[in-house]
């Protein structure tokens, strides 16, 4: 399979594989003005498997999209609808959430010479990014495929839902985000969130999106 064919396969939105039931989201539709990026905090698709079992299958905190490490895009429900993803109604109703498969913060286990997350899942050493942020030092890197798919999906959503082409563009707390129109990350809302982690290069993202980052 050639490079062009690979890109075409990756840049499709899978609306079937992990589609959730109507009981897992609110069916009322709202105008969307914000995209919230975040990470799953887990290996592989484990966050999806967890959500499927949470609250006896009735969990309503789902994200709208998931992007796998390979760059595959999964849609879980109609983006015009909403869930309790952020737990702030006025934000959840007008936002679309995208989670990238990623362990987030990891620790070095000197006894076993491994990097692990809180669930004891192992992060390969070549995927470990080091930067002190919010009192944490080690993070799993996001993949190049995820960057490309995140750009593709954000461009698609901005066009489809007429969301302003704008982005907070950094990894720190930002005030007044409830009224922000454009792309932000979960970590911009509260210091308790560690996603997107600092390995995500917003300069590259904004350049690919065509957003002025000056």
Topology:
Blueprint: H1 3-10, E1 13-14, E2 34-39, H2 46-53, E3 65-67, E4 73-75, H3 89-92, E5 95-100, E6 105-109, E7 114-116, E8 122-123, E9 128-133, E10 136-140, H4 144-161, E11 182-185, H5 202-209
CATH superfamily descriptor: Peptidoglycan recognition protein-like
CATH topology: Lysozyme-like
Instruction: Output the number of helix runs.
Output: 5
Strand residue content: 15-25%
Q: What best-fitting shape do the alpha-carbon axes yield?
A: globular
CATH second-level architecture: 3-Layer(aba) Sandwich
* pLDDT < 50 runs, ≥5 residues: 1-9
Textual characterization of the structure:
By secondary structure, the protein is α/β, with parallel strands linked by helices. The protein has one domain (3-103, 143-209): Peptidoglycan recognition protein-like (Lysozyme-like), CATH 3.40.80. It has 5 helices and 11 strands; from the N terminus they run αββαββαββββββαβα. It has helices spanning 3-10, 46-53, 89-92, 144-161, 202-209; strands at 13-14, 34-39, 65-67, 73-75, 95-100, 105-109, 114-116, 122-123, 128-133, 136-140, 182-185. Strands 1-4-3-5-2-11 form a 6-stranded mixed beta sheet, with helices on one face. Strand 9 and strand 10 (136-140) form a beta hairpin. The protein is globular. 35% of the residues are buried. Residues 1-9 have low confidence and may be disordered.
Summarize the structure.
By secondary structure, this protein is an alpha/beta fold. It has helices spanning 3-10, 46-53, 89-92, 144-161, 202-209, and strands at residues 13-14, 34-39, 65-67, 73-75, 95-100, 105-109, 114-116, 122-123, 128-133, 136-140, 182-185. The chain is 21% helix and 21% strand.
